[in-house]
C-alpha cells in the first residue's frame, strides 16, 4: 500500500505478530493497538485462529480437544478454514473502511508449525493459504524471536496441544521462522523478544518502519 501524502489519513495497514509459543506476541497486541489508536488510527485486533464464531469453534478443536486425533494435513486445513472466515468476516471489511488490523498470528504460523516443524511442504501450505486468504498478505510481519528455553519457561500455565510438543519441536519452530524471515526481510522484521515487555513494545513500534513517526 502506498504511503499517504502529508496531512492525509494514514492508509490502512495489516500487521501480524508472530513467534513461537512463549515469545510474548499475544501480550503485545493490545499495547500496539493502544499506541496506534493514540495516533488517531482506527485499529481492529484479532487472533488466528479465532475472532469469529467459526474460528473459535475450530480453535477449540485444534488446541484443546486432545481426544480428537488430527493428522498434520487435517490440522493445517482446519487452520485454513478458520483463517478464510477471519479474512472474510473481520480483516477485509476493516481494511476496506480504512482501519488498521493487528493480528495475533496469520498464514506464516501454518507454514512454520505444520511445514518447517511438522513435516508438510511449506510451499504447498503457502499455495493453500493463497486460496484461504484470497491472496491477502500482511503489510508487515513482526517476528518476536526468543530462545526456545526462554519461551518454555514463560509458559507457566496448562499447555495446549501444540505447546506440549516439547523442546525439539520449539527449536524446529524457531529455525523455521528465522528461515522465513531471511527469505523475506522487507516484510518480516525480527524483534528480539528476550527483553522486558516495555522494551519489546518499543522495538515493535520501531519495526513498523516509520509509518507513524
Can I get a quick summary?
With 213 residues, this protein is α/β, with parallel strands linked by helices. The protein has 8 helices and 5 strands; from the N terminus they run βαβααβααβααβα.
Task: Assign the structural class, choosing from mainly alpha, mainly beta, alpha/beta, alpha+beta, or little secondary structure.
Answer: alpha/beta
Q: Within the largest sheet, what's the order of strands? A: 2-3-1-4-5
Total number of strands: 5
Give the overall shape, derived from the CA principal axes.
Answer: globular
The separation of the N and C termini measures 17 Å
Q: How many domain units? A: 1
**CATH fold title:** Rossmann fold
Examine the secondary-structure arrangement and name the CATH architecture. Answer: 3-Layer(aba) Sandwich
Helix content: 40-55%
Q: What composes the largest sheet?
A: 5 strands, parallel
Number of helices: 8
Q: What is the C-alpha radius of gyration, as a whole number of Å?
A: 17 Å
For CATH, the homologous superfamily is named as: P-loop containing nucleotide triphosphate hydrolases
The top level CATH class name: Alpha Beta
How would you describe this structure to a colleague?
The chain has 213 residues and is an alpha/beta fold. It has one domain: P-loop containing nucleotide triphosphate hydrolases (Rossmann fold). It contains eight helices and five strands; from the N terminus they run E-H-E-H-H-E-H-H-E-H-H-E-H. It has a five-stranded parallel β-sheet with strand order 2-3-1-4-5, sandwiched between helices. The two termini are 17 Å apart.
